[in-house]
Amino acid sequence: MDDRIPEDPDLERLAERDWAPPSAIPIAEPALAASAKESIGRQAASGVLWLTAQKWAIRVLGFVTIAVLTRLLSPGDFGTVAAASTILPFFYLLADLGFAAYIVQVAKADQRMLSTAFWFSLSAGAVLCGALLAIAPVMGAVFGNPRVVPVLQALSVWVILTAFGSVPMALLRRNMRFGVLAGQGAIAAVIAQVVAMVMAFSGFGVWALVGQSLVAPAITSILAWVSTRWHPDLMFARREFATMTRYGGQVLGVEFVAMLRASGEAAVISSTLGVAALGYMNIAQRLVQVVQDLTGSAIVPVTTVAFARIRDERERLLSAYVRALRMSYAALSLPLTIVAVAAPMIVPILFGKAWEASYPVAQILAIAGTLTVGAWLDHGLFYGVGKPGKWFAYALIIDGITFGTTAVLAHNGLVSVAWGFLGVCVIATVSRWFLVARILATAVRTVAGPFFFVVTAVATSGAAGWGVMQLTREVPDVVSIILIALAVTVVHLTVTRLLAPNVISEGLAVLARSKWLSRFPILRNRRAQS
Prior knowledge:
Blueprint: H1 11-16, H2 34-72, H3 75-85, H4 88-96, H5 99-105, H6 111-142, H7 148-155, H8 157-164, H9 166-174, H10 178-201, H11 207-228, H12 238-273, H13 275-295, H14 299-309, H15 314-351, H16 358-384, H17 388-409, H18 414-439, H19 444-471, H20 477-499, H21 502-512, H22 521-529
Helix pairs in contact: 2-10, 2-13, 2-14, 3-7, 3-13, 4-6, 4-8, 4-12, 5-9, 5-12, 6-7, 6-8, 6-12, 8-11, 9-11, 10-11, 12-13, 12-17, 13-15, 13-16, 14-16, 15-16, 15-19, 15-20, 15-21, 16-18, 17-18, 18-19, 19-20, 21-22
């Protein structure tokens, strides 16, 4: 668990029109025009809101879909697909080789570079797809589940589909066309979820999940090509390939380590506790991920581009980072605290009573999820300032500790694994304070400051929610969840207002920069003040 810049003299017009071939786009050199500087904040705000809206659109139907699928499919079905899916991103990374991240942040992107990236990714994707077909039996043996073999062989097509759309999607991100990306992602996800439900009701079993996994990237890639109107030339430039490989190799190292850890953890849990346990873990992770998606994950792809655009202005970069960190912590810690308290009631309502083993795991992972917010932002910062190598060194150490912790604690059950992950998150958070402080040339306390107000807010609001839960044991679960959410929200906002009074006003200022929300009077006034 990451990415980052040039400029058209008029970023507003560039963001609103269809992408033109790089040779047709006048790109300013490092110094940004004044009007371009002013538009970065507005584009970033709109990008966050567009991508957040996309997540809501996807997850609203996604909740319905997963609620249906968990009643039609078994934990073993989810565990089988989860086991097969853990290796897929690694193969995609080999096909992409970090070129998409390079395209997003490079100062200039010409036709030779883009064509080189495309043909490499597509060719590598085809080769790696064949490799997946060949090693599927081995992976079935590793996971101790022969059902993984045909599922992984079918999912191997996923590598080609995602590699095919890699360059067009990177171009959309580079030009901060997050509204387009959001719309395309929502359309693809909705169609994929409908396909999964139709297949599940038709009795296809685990193949409903496979169909969902393949339909989404296929539609997303096609729509990205249509939006960019870019086409590759029949060329492959060795110099550009070497340049992209130097940067992309470090990005690949980060992602490789993360995927290796995820695959290793899935294998350990599956072989030690059984594939059903992997399914329980997968559902708990999904619940936490859904909350993160709906409240703050859109910050990551937007801020990485924004950080890259201002990386030569250290004071501005520091100010933007601290504000983004405060708002990210505030935005995600509130809903994750509600999940941490009410998961024993939320999980059975959403997924059914058969998923009881996921309750405590989801509670612990929700707490850990608050800490990972900082990792998202720091990941984008390191990529944006052109230092993926330093992030790779950090990821190598932390992911190694995470896997080792899982391997040691797996025999004690999923709850022990979750507690171990939380402990590693604490260690990782503290270590990042020193790394980021050095990158931004500031004091460690400046970077660590936002963390302490969040810890206090989460602890106090969580205690209030737990107290309400004890008092409402006799009422229906839905009512209890609502009352818990109200208590957590009131206490959390109160503590935030007392300890970090600027967070709320900063959040309103960000919303005010969005063109499609600034029409509201309160935000329009805030925009005028800021």
